[in-house]
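Hi V.,

You were right to ask for the full record rather than a summary. Here it is.
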Amino acid sequence: MSAPQVVQTDNTAPPTPVISLELKTPTGQLKKLKCGQVKKGDGLIRITVQAFDPNFSRLSVAAQGNSSLSVPIVAVPEGSVGPAVPLSKTYNGDLTDTGYPVPTSFLWDPWSDPNIVPCCYVVRIDIWDRTVINNSWGGGWHNAGWEAIEIGF
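Predicted structure:
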């Protein structure tokens, strides 16, 4: 006979993720982009995301448009001078990683990505929590959020 085991049951999806898009002009001014149009030279797109779960598994942030086009977003963390990083991420065994628990902003230059074509896009964030069964983890519950934008050249 074995000792009692602790079991945790979480039958809830992560909270609905929040995503917002703003145009950051070359002068530093921020303009809301809800269903907005952006052309090359207008500035960069500031993406602010918040998506979390105590049992975080993974999240993805992608621009979806042009029928079946889905482009993972790679952007520079706002305030950073470092290189662009993927906004999508996975748990990878780090129990302290809960996703983006506080609003986190990135500056995206869609014109630097050759996969982005002039089109209407939905910038979508998806988050999954994890299920641990027999010492391995996988995706569990899911939730999504998005904003629409038109990117022109």
